[in-house]
Specification:
single chain; alpha+beta; PH-domain like; seven-stranded antiparallel beta sheet; 2 helices; 28% helix
Length: 172
Amino acid sequence: MNTPTLIGSLVFAFVLVVLIGVVIRLMVRGWRHRGQLQDALIGSLPSVPDTVGSPTVAATRGQYLGCTLAPKWNDRVVAGDLGYRTKAVLTRYPEGIMVQRSGARPIWIPQDAVVAVRTERGIAGRTIPALPHRPDDGVLAIRWRLPSGTEIDTGFRADDRAEHRRWTEEDE
């Protein structure tokens, strides 16, 4: 390789690295700005109660997929730590629903704030097509109203999709 070609290649590589860095920085900046805008909509989450009754739906292991602003299944909530996917355990009590997330604070959904519990094809950029003969294969979506009045959907996918039926039957 001759010297002008080597210099041209190094300049091109440098410009490409700088361009990629700028794009990543703009993406992070946009994510933070969106979080700041949503902070006003979301407000503070309900606090976890000190005591609860015995579970009405036993603990279901799976993956917390994130929260979205209702009714837009693809408008992810990025405020706080609500936008990150993680392993979780979902349990329903007479007082509400507990989402215990790995590596994040638990989410408490008071019973009077629950609007609907249903299965959907997708939530927060995650789509799982439900087959006609297996309607529980999708995502478990819990629509609930925050203290600020904003409605959000919380997405959960159980390790065993048949457990979704227990959650939707309980809500009927």
